[in-house]
Amino acid sequence: MDTTSRLIMLLEVVEQGSFSKAAEVRNIDRSVISKQISKLEEELGVRLLNRTTRSFSLTAAGAEMVKKAAELRVLLQDTVQMAENYHQEARGLLRITSSSYIGKYYLLPVINDFQKRFPQVTIELRLDDRVIDMVSEGFDLAFRVGEPRDSSLIARKVARNRMLILATPQFIETYGEPKEMSDLAELPAAAYSSNHIRFESISYIDDKGKPQEQPITPVFKSNDGEALLEKVLSHTAFCTAPAFFFADHIDHAQLVPMLTHVNLPDYSAMYAVYPHRDLPVRTRLFLDAARHYIGEAVPRWEHNIPGLDKMYLPK
Question: Which CATH superfamily is domain 92-161+269-302 in?
Answer without folding.
Answer: Periplasmic binding protein-like II (3.40.190.10)
